[in-house]
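Sat 14:20. Reprocessing the chain from the morning session after the first attempt stalled halfway. Input below, unchanged.
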Amino acid sequence: MGAKDPDRFDLSALLGRLGVPGDALAGGDLEVHSPIDGSTIANIHTHSETEVGAAIARAAQAFADWRMVPGPRRGELVRLLGEELRAAKDDLGRLVTIECGKIAEEGRGEVQEMIDICDFAVGLSRQLYGLTIASERPGHRMMEQWHPLGPVGVITAFNFPVAVWAWNAAIALVCGDSVVWKPSEKTPLTALACQALFQRAVARFGAGAPDGLAQVIVGGREAGEKLVDHPAIALISATGSTRMGAAVGPKVLARHGKVLLELGGNNAMIVAPSADLELALRAIVFSAVGTAGQRCTSLRRLIVHDDIYDDLLPALKSAYEGIRIGDPLDSGTLVGPLIDWRAGDEMHRVLGVADDEGGTVHGGGPVTDGVPEGGAYMRPAIVEMPEQTETVRTETFAPILYVLRYSDFDRAVALQNGVPQGLASCIFTRDVKEAERFLAAAGSDCGIANVNIGPSGAEIGGAFGGEKATGGGRESGSDSWKAYMRRQTATVNYSDDLPLAQGITFDIKGD
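Finished this time. Tokens:
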């Protein structure tokens, strides 16, 4: 759709405060739309194949220089980036809402997540620890150490347009790597704003931050493929669909690069008979309808025990009826639009398939009253399913919550694990045995498993990622930093002899 009211979002002033020049918004070949009303908010230039290649070359040179800067000094740059993000939190959060449609509270929360990972990375810059290993050879010292890896290519999705870049960039920078970022073509303005804030941090940092240390390339699939295929990019960190990951992973591995894949999720909650139903209800609603169901950790399957099914479902339907759907910039809105009408049409199609499979659909369908014209506003849907069909096993990026019944705990866990994806999972129970069984080796097969908390809304302190078709990558906290460095085992012989490992004798002196 075309522009409705070019001054509605006061975008030029907003981007100006964030450091993005006004001439970056017009005259380009990529139309940027706001999901709030479908309007065109910018026409920006995409990068040609030659320009992408030049950016990668700059990143390679920047890495050669940056890896020589001490880790704590690298951390200082990330500290300054965190300060810039703190100062710009409201403006950048508003831009996130305008460009990807999540409500204002979530937009600000996403920027806070960026600030948090910067704080984490600053501390990490002094804790890139190796190991001392006992050697079997006398007079030898063996150790494990970590070195910067190389330029990192970051490919992000529209639903978290800035936080995922920060997860990667903050850690990569303190590890001594350079970063080339290819944002979703649906959300490039937030990327340009982050780049401008990074350049402010570089200006304050002073000497030592090489040109090309962090860059943004704007484009579609071709730009991403250039990153994926280029031998100078040591690590590709890609967030997106499982189909995208299936294409990216083999390409990078074929050139002996490293991949960190964060792909689809089909996350479930088991609600046991002993659960605190009020607590569970609140968690269900936020996890299922937050970000209009467009989180990789969104709750998509609800597995409810027979004994409480008839108590929980009416309460859940009532809660859904009270959800305020509308302009995500308005205070009090809980559900904004889907990213575009293509997503809305797909939601409508999938609900029809679920109905054909014997599901009972509550809600769903477009919302037209009290919402900005042109946006893909959809009513969140609850679908009671007789079984876990192929439709249920397939992730749909929309606010659809499938509800299944169970009577046996092992059956509930089997349903939870019976999908290709393995990102996030949770159980609501006050039974300690059930909680521990859920977290045990034969319990949830997901990378994230929670007890009495929903699957959505991970903290940066823990490693984020999943198993199976979710890709197996880990970002953010814990020891995820190791993905951005190369491991080296080193042995020093400080004796006058040359004993061999395993007691091997190899005498070249003869008789």
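The CA atoms of residues 216 and 482 lie 24 Å apart.
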